[in-house]
Automatic annotation (TrEMBL):
It is found in: Cell membrane; Membrane. Pfam families: SURF1 (PF02104). Residues 276-288 have a biased composition (Basic and acidic residues). Residues 263-275 have a biased composition (Gly residues). PROSITE patterns: SURF1. Residues 244-288 are annotated as: Disordered. Belongs to the SURF1 family. This is SURF1-like protein. It comes from Streptomyces lavendulocolor. It is a multi-pass membrane protein. InterPro entries: Surf1/Shy1, Surf1/Surf4. Keywords: Cell membrane, Membrane, Transmembrane, Transmembrane helix.
């Protein structure tokens, strides 16, 4: 009855179904774990943004790698901006997805150490080799409040660190690279400025990170699991349909053949009887 399942076509179809089920289940868990990470990150951002600001030197030091638990922590730093070592970070977007640069200015603390401050976004120069117009940093001693971020690397950001760039232009915000250029001890990571607000609203301050949206990862996970459940159901439906079609095909030719044989037999019998009668009649009139 189900011997057709041993055919090459059905063996291949069954093997494909057996492979798809665990693959789809795994894809569902992959999306589910992405959902969990997004929820955890949103909670981390919310908690760190609500926390009272602390001096940046309490959370980082020269050569220190900022742990993920301290990302977006509100910190303060008091010092004097060193505009002579100011650089711009190429190919960055603002809140409206316009491409420009970030203004990265060292802030020299009272103890002589330096923390990098991302003062915000400005449009890039028309000529990419030229240094863009950057509003001057405040003079004198200033207290900056911002969000602590980790050093950028190619591995973490996906941004290629190009060489041979024009002077005072970089691709990544990295404290170790800037320490070599500045010649001072630079605190690990950098500060993303939120206050004071710049005069004339430029540079544009970096907006607060999104920590409300959870994306569609959970919906994708459920979809993959439904697909996985649908594979065996679809396989059973196809098997039953194939069995039904084969049974109907087996019945139809047998029924036609039987009716054809019966008709032929009747026609042959009638014809034979008529011919037999015709042959005997002339024989009766032959002379003795």
């Amino acid at each position: 009855m189900y011997r057709f399942l041993l055919s090459r076509q059905w063996v291949i179809l069954t093997l494909i179904a057996l492979v798809l089920i665990p693959v789809m289940i795994e894809l569902g868990f992959w999306q589910f774990h992405r959902h969990e990470r997004r929820v955890a990150q949103n909670q981390l951002i919310e908690d760190n943004l609500k926390a009272a600001p602390v001096p940046v030197t309490e959370l980082t030091s020269p050569g220190h790698t900022v742990p993920r638990g301290d990302y977006w922590r509100r910190v303060t730093a008091t010092g004097t901006f060193d505009t002579g070592h100011e650089v711009v970070v190429r190919r960055r977007t603002n809140a409206d997805d316009r491409i420009g640069v970030l203004v990265l200015t060292p802030l020299v603390l009272r103890d002589g150490r330096v923390v990098l401050v991302n003062r915000g976004w400005v449009p890039a120069a028309a000529d990419q080799k030229s240094f863009p117009e950057v509003p001057p940093a405040p003079g004198g001693e200033v207290t900056v409040t911002g969000r602590l971020k980790a050093d950028e690397t190619t591995g973490a950001s996906g941004i290629k660190d190009l060489s041979g760039l024009p002077p005072r232009q970089v691709m990544l915000i990295n404290s170790e690279q800037q320490a070599e250029s500045i010649g001072r001890d630079v605190l690990g990571g950098y500060l993303e400025q939120t206050a004071p607000a710049p005069a004339g609203d430029t540079p544009e301050l970096i907006p607060e990170p999104d920590h409300d949206s959870i994306g569609a990862h959970m919906a994708y996970a459920v979809q993959w699991w439904l697909f996985a459940a649908g594979v065996p159901v679809g396989w059973v439906v196809l098997v039953r349909r194939e069995k039904r079609d084969r049974e109907e095909a087996a019945r139809t030719p047998g029924a036609d053949g039987g009716e054809g044989d019966g008709d032929g037999g009747s026609a042959g019998g009638s014809g034979g009887g008529s011919r037999g009668g015709d042959e005997r009649e002339p024989a009766a009139h032959l002379p003795a």
